[in-house]
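Re: the multi-chain job from yesterday

Posting the exact lines I submitted so nobody has to dig through the queue logs.
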Amino acid sequence: MSFVIILIKASLIYGGLLGTAAAMTLAERKISAWMQLRIGPNRVGPGGVLQPLADGVKFIFKEEVTPDGANKGLFRLGPIMAAAPAMLTIAVIPFAGETTIFGIDFGLLSLTDLDIGLLFVLALSGLSVYGVILGGWASNSKYSLLGGLRASAQMVSYELSLIMTALTVVALSGSMNLREIVEVQNTGNFLDWHCFTPVVGQVGLILFVITTFAETNRHPFDFAECEPELVGGFHTEYSSMKFALFFLGEYCAMTVMACLTTVLFLGGYSVPFWEDAPWIVQVGTFMTKTAFFLFLFIWVRWTLPRFRYDQLMNLGWKIFFPIALANLLLAGAVISLS
Amino acid sequence: MVDLLFYVAAAVSVLCALGVVVSANPVQSVMMLLGSFTGIALIYLLAGFQFLAAIQILVYGGAIMVLFLFVVMLLNQGDPVALAREQGVLHKEQLAGGLAVAGSALAVLLVAVARTDLPRPIFGYLWPEGGLDPLLGMAQAMFGPYVLAFEGASVLLLATAVGVMTLAKRQRNKPVAAASTSEEASA
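And the result, structure tokens for all chains:
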């Protein structure tokens, strides 16, 4: 019975993740069109809603090209390493508290409840950089290699600030278990959410959101791609479903990062003024919060211009990292004083 | 089940470790090393050390191996496979020497393991019934009895990093105006 429940949860959560990623590809184009006074995709299905499906079919039927001199094994490994870590990390995100549907006890609405949940997410999302580096190197193309090298430097640099900022939340809630982090904030009073902790919370939230942009290689930090300089960056030589897998990985990583921001700073599934809300309200609340951050990803992409590469590195090492350290220190002070 | 998983993880880490030495392509070697580390992380996980497993992946997999890969790619001159074919990866003497060193290390290790009184069923044995909080125990040990050693090690590492920077910078006669970003990253 418990095996069946896990199977149901797994198919729902992974289906939801892939569905969200697919919907994001459409949302990106629709919202960018809206921001630029265009119409956007509207041919496939009502209002263009079937566009992601059509894209999928198109990608599958495209010819696969492997460039001459490419390292075949690593060239294949690249897209897998880009997509798999992002898809694995969703396993520890709690979408709702204890759930009973039609008298069947589903337990916590997440795939597993790990004591080291946050570390699991950080460790695996750190691995996604391999997809970019390997894809760039194995393609045997200078643009790809440059894109891969830039991305590796960028992701390793910003990972530090990301981990430091996440540690602030760990210090505030006294646990690395994502369920416990949410439960600390789920008191019925939304002022207990970590983002409302004076100074520490706000600085942490802003830092965390910006570093997730850098970690997922999104605008304004998308130097791994950077069309005007590098053609297409690390995925210049990729075609067909391999290329699609890079994109799927990027959108999955965005979704997971949006979920993580929600859990860490916005109280996850906790509903304002309603401590033990039914699971469906909790899931709805969680999705609303996550959707805001997903919208923010798109909003920023079509609003801000791209940084210069040295600006990006200076920002990461000379501004974000010291602020993240100071914030952690401040969090320690706040905890020991209260 | 745990036993089976242990043998799978052990086989993966040993085979990957062999792959590190055998593969002609340095990038492939780095990826093999990553596989080996992942296998070891799995063994930690099976023994109940969740925290150690996650740190193994985070530090070695996510940071150190990325830097290795970074350096290997920057130093990559020409086609490594063709280079290896020209020079031959393993000469007979090299092979013999390597095997001798590896064999003697293995012998020492086997003797050490045989002489140590280990608790028999290693796996499924170390953690108590309700599971143990891997973080709390680790943190209490690290910041309790071993706090001096821990802080000492971190000061040592910092000193090493500063020393490396000083040595590397001294060899350069003129400071380059635009200090390359890659150095900042690896620092």
